[in-house]
Amino acid sequence: MSTLRVDNIKSRTGSTVTIPESNTLAVTGIASISGNTNVSGSLNVTGALNVTGSGTVNTSGIMTCGGLTVNGNMTVDGTTTTISSVNLVVEDKNIGIGTTTSPSNTTADGGGITIFGGSDGDKTLTWNSNSDAFAFSNGVDIRGAVETVSTASTYAISGSTNVILECDAHNGTVFTHSLANGQVGIVSLRDFAVTKNSLTTYTIIFTQNATGTGNTTGSTGIGTNIFLKPYNVAGFSTSARVSSGSTVTISSTANDIDIVSFAIHYNGSGTGTVGNYNVLATNNGSFRYGGVRP
């Protein structure tokens, strides 16, 4: 193996330097490249390596230098890129990962960030295409977090005075509904994540209408008829388990407020089987102004 050593040579012109395979280009000092350098072997620069303009450095071996400045675009083709740096500073405020010729929700699955934790276990933030959500390997501490309250959607049931009340997890998990818009015949809970052994909660704040007649009997009670539609699953009808009685009924007093909470437990045994889901319902109700008010 031979070595081409360049020491203190200045003002040389030329566009291409080619070093044959299994040979080494060694530069003592600073190397500045404005043309092309093709190294089939290794490139060793004791000082800094400056690549300007349209200059390119191609090497199939190892490139070693005291410092590297690239005043243009840099493309790295390989299997693994390792950066051993104490501080990594990136000016770009939006970093793209998982690039491919045909990106999709499927190709993005599992993409994210891994923080190595050694024997204590890695910490990850990854995209889960099945649940259409980011998955955290550990708990999330969000200071001052508050829940955005959304308005539940209603749809008429053909041939009935009741409506379908739909709550979409993509809009939040707390919803309001005024019973002046119709009695609720079916509660639809949709687009919740189907992570194994998970519990998803929905809370609905019901305001009783002015006559106080909505949803006060078992046949139209909240929880009698539940339609579940997990994310990316066709969905199915079921009923909620309640603490007592056959359903959740709410106050019949005009303008009262009831807060009904649903919890959906998915055991992970198969997203398309209704028996793998348990819907639990409870009510804190008959909220009204007290008899003593300032």
What is the number of strand segments? 22
CA gyration radius, whole angstroms: 32 Å
Average of pLDDT: 84
Physical arrangement of strands within the biggest beta sheet: 12-15-17-21-22-20
Helix share, percent: under 10%
Number of helices: 1
Stretches where pLDDT is under 50 for at least 5 consecutive residues are none
Largest sheet, strands/sense/barrel: 6 strands, mixed
Tell me the β content: 35-45%
Structural class: mainly beta
Shape: elongated
Counted up, domains total 3
Describe the structure.
By secondary structure, the chain is mainly β. 1% of the residues lie in helices and 42% in strands. The chain has 3 domains: 3-70, no CATH class; 105-136, no CATH class; 149-287, no CATH class. It has 1 helix and 22 strands. Strands 12-15-17-21-22-20 form a 6-stranded mixed β-sheet, with no helix packed on it. Strands 1, 3, 4, 6 and 8 form a 5-stranded parallel β-sheet that branches. It has a 5-stranded mixed β-sheet with strand order 13-14-16-18-19, with no helix packed on it. The radius of gyration is 32 Å and the shape is elongated. The protein starts with a strand and ends in a 7-residue tail after the last strand. 20% of the residues are buried.
Please outline what is shown here.
With 294 residues, the protein is mainly β. Helix content is 1%, strand content 42%. The protein is built from one helix and 22 strands.
Which helices and strands occur, and which strands form pairs?
Blueprint: E1 3-7, E2 16-19, E3 24-28, E4 31-33, E5 36-39, E6 42-51, E7 56-59, E8 63-70, H1 105-108, E9 112-115, E10 123-128, E11 133-136, E12 149-151, E13 153-156, E14 162-168, E15 174-178, E16 183-190, E17 198-207, E18 226-229, E19 236-238, E20 241-242, E21 257-266, E22 277-287
Parallel strand pairs: 1-3, 2-5, 3-6, 4-6, 5-7, 6-8, 12-15, 14-16, 15-17, 16-18, 20-22
Antiparallel strand pairs: 9-10, 10-11, 13-14, 17-21, 18-19, 21-22
